[in-house]
Amino acid sequence: MTKMAAVYTSFVLIMLLMVSSCLCYCPLEKSYNTGNCSYRFHCIRVIQDIGLPEHCQGSTNYHVKVNVYLSDAIDRFDKSMNPKFLYSITSLRASGVWPQTNLSLIQYMPQLQTLNISGNQIEKITENAFYTLTQLEYLDLSHNRLSDVEGLFEFEMLPNRMRHLNLAHNEIQQIPSSAFENLTSLIELDLSYNLISYLDENSFDNLTNLETLRLNNNNIKNQIGALNALGNLTNLYLSKNEIQIIDDDSLELLKHLVILDVSWNQLDVLTPELFLRHWQHFEGRAVCKILLSENHLTFLPNATSVELMSRFTRHDHHKKRVDVLTKLDLSKNSITTIEYNAFRYLVRLTSLDLSQNKLTNFRVNADDLVYIEYLNLSKNYITQLNLECFLSMNRLQNLDLSNNYIDGIPDLLFINNYQLKRIDMKFNDLKVLENLHIKIFHPDEGILDLSNNAIYKMNIPSGEGMRLKKLMLQSNNISDPTNIDLKHQIDLEHIDMSNNYIQYLNSSSLCLPTNITHLDLSYNDISKIAPATFHKFRQLKTLRLSHNDLTGIEYGIFQGMTSLVYLNLSNNDISYLDSKVFIDLRSLYILSIEHNSMIFLDYKGWVAHKHELKVYIDGNNFTCDWLGTALSDYNNNFSKMRPYALNGGTGKHSLQGIPCVQKEIGELVQIDSKSGTLTDSDRLLAVNLKILEAIKNQTYVLRKFMWHSLYAESKNI
Ligand SMILES: *[C@@H]1O[C@H](CO)[C@@H](O)[C@H](O)[C@H]1NC(C)=O
Ligand SMILES: *[C@@H]1O[C@H](CO)[C@@H](O)[C@H](O)[C@H]1NC(C)=O
Ligand SMILES: *[C@@H]1O[C@H](CO)[C@@H](O)[C@H](O)[C@H]1NC(C)=O
Ligand SMILES: *[C@@H]1O[C@H](CO)[C@@H](O)[C@H](O)[C@H]1NC(C)=O
Ligand SMILES: *[C@@H]1O[C@H](CO)[C@@H](O)[C@H](O)[C@H]1NC(C)=O
Ligand SMILES: *[C@@H]1O[C@H](CO)[C@@H](O)[C@H](O)[C@H]1NC(C)=O
Ligand SMILES: *[C@@H]1O[C@H](CO)[C@@H](O)[C@H](O)[C@H]1NC(C)=O
Ligand SMILES: *[C@@H]1O[C@H](CO)[C@@H](O)[C@H](O)[C@H]1NC(C)=O
Ligand SMILES: *[C@@H]1O[C@H](CO)[C@@H](O)[C@H](O)[C@H]1NC(C)=O
Ligand SMILES: *[C@@H]1O[C@H](CO)[C@@H](O)[C@H](O)[C@H]1NC(C)=O
Ligand SMILES: *[C@@H]1O[C@H](CO)[C@@H](O)[C@H](O)[C@H]1NC(C)=O
Ligand SMILES: *[C@@H]1O[C@H](CO)[C@@H](O)[C@H](O)[C@H]1NC(C)=O
């Protein structure tokens, strides 16, 4: 009986708990006091059973801020709600499913400044729903299914205060001419991702304060002139529409834009006046962006009108500091021709993207390029580089010439550039670069990408290529590495010569600066490396020799490489390795020898290695006996070598996730499956080394102790 009673009471308790959590619409543990009379609440379903402290109600000295997030919101008001509390709400985000709504709840929240009812599947809002919200500044109606906004933005009091209105991701097809007529304070209007195809001239008439208008991802064709009334507009987003022409009517508006994004449209003609910017509008300071990529442009005509030229001259006659820069994106069009003066109207062009067009050359008025820092000419059909243009670009930092048909770099091309950070010339037709002149790179970065050409010979003379830090030469036609002479470029740290045709290396093969730190020679045909090949390169930290034809490593190959940390010998044909060939590699931390069909690795040489050495060994034929001993020698601290696997294995033929080969009876394995492992005397040696070190430590401590006591004694005297 008592047992039954206990079960019964606990059931009642659970019921009670459930009921009380149901009642708790605005749980206390989800509310925060964020300042004097400033609160954040999270309510579920309805806003109920909640109030503010006495001193924050009614007329109060404090600036009351009440921020409510209502999830699973029900759109209704009933008498059980606390009207005083509703009255005090200043910010509401409500999420629910309200296909039809008259927003009855917010009628009781006249203090609302921010209202977010985004993502509520709203199809229709009753007219005048926001009528009483005279304080509203920020309204987010995005991600709903609104198609009609007629009569929605009517307000009791004018002038209206709304500054931001977000209607993005709805189903609006047309903007009624008077819909926004009283939103005279609006600064930002987002109408992106709708179905708007027509812009009515009167729709935007009163939005004289509007600065940002987003109309991207609609179906707008040609009526940009309808935006002319937007006298303070600075950012106009029109990408992903169906605009075919920017008519003369619209040019007036464009002059004071800082950002004009017309990318992903169907423009096929460009008037040079589109580039004009009237810098009085920018208070002397702006970074203008003109985005025209993904259109159908084929031709950039000369700027012609002399009259306009003088009006918008790039020199300011009033000696006022004018700091207006322009970035122009014309990528992904079909431009074949750029006339000499096409960029005349641009104010200080600093960035020009002409990638993915059909240019065969790039030759424009050099005066228009003097401010250029970024130039992208990638993926065109350029065969030659125009000297005059490049000579004027002495601020150039980032140059992309990749994927063209360039077969040479003119001698003086880079003579005036002192700011270069990256030059990308991959995928061109370069074969020989004799006496390449690139005086000096930027202190922060110096990268030259010459990969995927057909280079077999190159040299940079002494005094050139200063601060060049990284050089990419992979996938070229290098078979004789002595033809790559870079020994004077003492700032070079990183050289990639992978994927070439090098077969043989000796101590005079690599004419590289002695202080490189990274060298990649993988994916060549190297079958033989003579002793002392790398001994000049004492700073080398990473050396990649994977994917070659090496069958063995001779003693002395890695002579003197005391800084090497990472060595990759994977994917060769090495069947046997003796750790003694690595004896100079005191800093070695990772050794990759996967995929070599190796049978054994003698690790005796690493008994006294400075620190743990990770050796990646999968893809070989090590026996499980060998692996077991190697692992136990590591675990017992006899050896510093720790076997690892990049692609682990499971099951019978693996140990600690490392695959191994089970020696089967009758199998023709000539060598002892444990050869290369430590003998007992090696292990004894390891123990002795440790004892020796401990003794050394102790003598040090002893000496310190003795010195201290001697010192103390001498002071006592
Ligand atoms: C709250 O008000 C008191 C005095 O009215 C003031 O000293 C204090 O800085 C205020 N705190 C916050 C977070 O505003
Ligand atoms: C709003 O709609 C609800 C039903 O959804 C209704 O009960 C209420 O009377 C309506 N309020 C107004 C002001 O029309
Ligand atoms: C409005 O709420 C949605 C989620 O409901 C959120 O993604 C969005 O950022 C909010 N808008 C603002 C301006 O906070
Ligand atoms: C804008 O305000 C005027 C003057 O109060 C009013 O006549 C008109 O109906 C309002 N328009 C809208 C769309 O609310
Ligand atoms: C808005 O524009 C209408 C004409 O479309 C005009 O009658 C009205 O006075 C304007 N309202 C304001 C506040 O400028
Ligand atoms: C720009 O805004 C200012 C201040 O808000 C206003 O005085 C001015 O008339 C607007 N300019 C234009 C051209 O509408
Ligand atoms: C463009 O301008 C340049 C320099 O003024 C001139 O040589 C060239 O003929 C012009 N092109 C056309 C088509 O007018
Ligand atoms: C140049 O343009 C191409 C193609 O548009 C792009 O992939 C590449 O990243 C750009 N280069 C730079 C340096 O930004
Ligand atoms: C690469 O160099 C060899 C001579 O070493 C030459 O026969 C071959 O045509 C070159 N390949 C290319 C793509 O230039
Ligand atoms: C590279 O080595 C040269 C001498 O060969 C030396 O003058 C230079 O300072 C070194 N540079 C770096 C970054 O260590
Ligand atoms: C390594 O083992 C595979 C089969 O597991 C065998 O085909 C291959 O010949 C062996 N390689 C050597 C070098 O023993
Ligand atoms: C010797 O001392 C060093 C530094 O205090 C310590 O890292 C090392 O583990 C010690 N060696 C032994 C064997 O105690």
UniProtKB/TrEMBL annotation:
Keywords: Leucine-rich repeat, Repeat, Signal. SMART domains: LRR_SD22, LRR_TYP. Pfam families: LRR_6 (PF13516), LRR_8 (PF13855). The keyword Repeat applies. Residues 1-24 form the signal peptide. This is Protein artichoke-like. The gene is LOC113522203. PROSITE patterns: LRR, PROKAR_LIPOPROTEIN. InterPro entries: Leu-rich_rpt, Leu-rich_rpt_typical-subtyp, LRR_dom_sf.
